Amino acid sequence: LGLGEERAKVDRMFGLMDQFLKNDPITLQNDILRHVEYTVARSRFSFDDFEAYQALAHSVRDRLIERWHDTQVHFKRKDPKRIYFLSLEYLMGRFLSNSVINLGIRDQYADALSQLGFEFEVLAEQEGDAALGNGGLARLSACQIDSLATLDYPALGYGLRYQYGLYRQVILDGYQHEQPYYWLNFGNPWEIERIHVTYPVKFYGTVEEEDFNGGKRQVWVPKETVEAVAYDNPIPGYGTRNTITLRLWAAKPSDQNDMESYNTGDYIDAVVNRRTAETISSILYPDDRSHQGKELRLKQQYFFVSASLQDIIRRFKDAHSNFDDFPEKVALQLNDTHPSLAIVEVMRVLIDEEHLSWSRAWDIVCKIFSFTTHTVLPEGLEKIPVDLLESLLPRHLQIIYDINFNFIEKLKKRIGLDYDRLSRMSIVEEGAAKSIRMANLSIVCSHTVNGVSKIHAELLKTRVFKDFYELWPHKFHYKTNGVTQRRWIVVSNPSLCALISKWLGTEAWIRNLDLLAGLQEYATNADLHQEWKMVRKVNKMRLAEYIETMSGVKVSVDAMFDVQIKRIHEYKRQFLNILGIIHRYDCIKNMEKNDRRNVVPRVCIIGGKAAPGYEIAKKIIKLCHAVAEKINNDPDVDDLLKLVFIPDYNVSVAELVIPGADLSQHISTAGHEASGTGSMKFLMNGCLLLATADGSTIEIIEEIGADNMFLFGAKVNEVPVLREKGPALKVPLQFARVVRMVRNGYFGFEDYFKSLCDSVEVGNDFYLLGSDFESYLEAQAAADMAFVDQEKWTQMSILSMAGSGRFSSDRTIEEYAEKTWGIEPCRCPF
Ligand code: F58
Asked: Where is the signal peptide (predicted)?
C-alpha cells in the first residue's frame, strides 16, 4: 500500500473502533452475565464461583480475540520476517490474571465483579494450571512468549496440546504418588479450536526409488496418517495491542487410513484403532532428567515438527513463490533438541516435495535454524535409536545419513584423519545400539548455538561441545535467561508492584525492568523500609495461611521463611538442604535452654516434583517428610524451627510462595545448573539468595554484589579437582554426624534411606555434599546474622530487587531478536 492508502485504511479502522468491546463496568457485567447464560448455559440468577470464572474467562477471551485478529491482519499486511519458536514444553500456568493485566483491564473487571457480588481473586483461584511441561525449560518458554508479545515481535510459538499435563503430585505417608492430570476435564476457555487448520502427518512405510527428470530419486511411501488440528492460545503483550499466537497441535484420526479397514469389514476394530491416533498428543513425558528412546516420544516429536512446518510453509507460500526468499521471512528457534527433526523435515520437504536440489535446500537450512541448549551434562543429550527412526521415518534417516556424510567428508579435509575426533563429532553414534545424536545434528545444521548463561557457554565451549567450538567458534553464543516481570511481580505480587510504581513515580518498569535500578538510591530510606516490611509481611501471612491449609503446620510470620522450590534432583541438592536442617535441629536440641533465645527462628519450605522413575529423588521427598514429622512435633524446638513440604509444586504455587520468601536456596553443585531461573523470580521479589556460584547466579553476583547474598561452596573449576580426590576427600565431622542420624534411623525408615545415605558417603559423593557442607553452614549462619538486623536485611532486600533489571526475559528476547534471529518489532498501529 502507498502511504496515503495506508493512512486511509488506518483511519477507517479507527472509525470502526467504536464497535470494539467496551470496558466500563456495565458492559463488563453484561458480558459476564451473557456468557453465564449463553456460553456456560447456567441461569444468570444462579451460578457458582466456577461458572462465574468460566463466564469471566470467556468475556476476557472476547477482548483477546479482537486484538489477536488485528495483530494477525497487521502481520499479514506487513509480511515481516517472523520468528517461529518450536518447543515441546510450555508451563503457562493460569491465563486469567495475566491476560487482564496485560490487557490493562484488571481493575475494571475487579470493580464490575464486586458489583455482581464476586471477588476477582476468588474467581481467579478457580483456574487450573496449564502445565504442559516439566521444569525450567518449559517455564522459560512461557516467559519468552510473554516477552515476544510485549515487545511486538512477529512471533508464533508452536507446541503440543497434551491432554494429560504434568502429573499431580500427591503425598501419602510422606511418599510421592503421581496422579494423571487430565486438565481439559473442565474445558479450556483460553484456547480456540481451529477445525479448518489441520494437516496430515505421516509415519512408517518405505522409501522407494523412482524415475525423475531423466534420473532417479527417493520417495517416501508412508503407511499411516494422523491429522494435526491447531488449537490457538492468544498471548497478549503488555502495553501494546499486539497479541500473538501459541499454536498447540492435537492429534486426531485421519480419514485417509480408513479405506483399507472398511474393506476388511471389521468396522468396530477400525473405529477402535482410530483412537490410537489421539495418544500421540495425549501425554507429556514427565522426565526432566533424561531422554527416552521410546517410539511414542519420537512420534510426538515428528508429529509436532511436521504439522508446524506445513503451517509455516503454507504461510510463506501464500505470499512468496521462490524458496530462496525463505530465510528472509523465516527464523526457526529450536528449544533444545526436542524439535530438531525440523531440520531434517525442511530438507525432505524442499527436496522431495518442492524439488529443490540438495545444495539449494542445504543452503536454506543453514540460514534458518538457531539452537538453544539447556543442559550441561553430556548424559542429558538426546539420542534417538536408529532402528526406531528407520521404522517410523525411513526417509528422514536417509537424509540424516547424507547430512552426516557431507559433514564428515568436509571435516576430514579440515582436521585430517583424527578418527577419535571424527567419531566424537559424527551425528551417528556407532556401537551395539546405533543412534542419532540430536545435539550434533542441531549444531551442524544451525547457524547459532546458544547457551543460557555465561558459565553455561564456557562449559559448552570447553567441555560439552569442545570439538565443535574449535571447528566453528563463531557459532557459539549465550543469552542469559530471564523471566517476565509481568507474571513474577505484577500478577503475583500486586502490593510490591504498587510500591515500586509509587517510589519510581512510573509504571514504565513493567516494560523496562532496568528502571528498577532507580530504587537503589532509596535503599536506606526509612519510609521505604517501613512500606517494604509491610508488603513483605502481608505476603508472608498469605503464605503462612496456605502452609497451614496444606500441611496443618502453624508457622510464625516473624520467623525467616527459607525456601527451596524446584524439581527434585540430586544435583540441585535438596538433600544438602535437609541435612543442614537436621544439623540446625541437632544444635538446638543440644543447646542450653537460655541459649535458645539467640536462635533465629526459621520456617524451612521445600517443594518440587520427582520424576516418576527417579528413586533417589523420591527418597529425598520422603526424608523431608520424616524429618518434618520429628521437628514439627518436638516441643523443644517449638517455633525456632519448622519444616514443611509444599505438595504439587507448580506455577500458581510458585506465584504464592515466592513473594512470601525471605531467603531462597539455589545450591546446585557448581557446573551443573545451566542457568536456573527461579533465583531471578525471588530476586525481583526482594528475597535474598543463598547460593553456589553456578549458572546465572554468577551474573546475579555481578549485578547486586556478593555482599548482598550468601554464597558458598566449591567453584566450577574446583569441582573436578575435588572429585579426583575420591575417598581422600575431607568431610567435616558434622556432616558425618547428620548422615549417621539418618542412616541409624533417627527419623525412622532406615532401610529405605540406606541408598540415599550411601550416595553421599566419602568416595561416592558425586555431588559433593560433604565437601561443601561446612561452607554451606557458614552461609546459613551469615544469613541468620543478617536477619537479626532487620534494617540491614531490608536494605539487602531492596538492593536485590533493584539489581534484578538484567534478568527480565525482555532483555533476553531483544538479544535473540537482534543477534540471532534478525527480526524487527511489528507493532499494531492503534
Ligand atoms: C533447564 N532444563 C535447566 N530441561 O536445567 C535450567 O538450568 C535452565 O534454567 C532451564 O532449563 C532454562 O534454560 C530443563 O528444564 C528439561 O526439563 C528437559 C525436558 C526433557 C527431558 C530432559 C530435560
From this structure: none
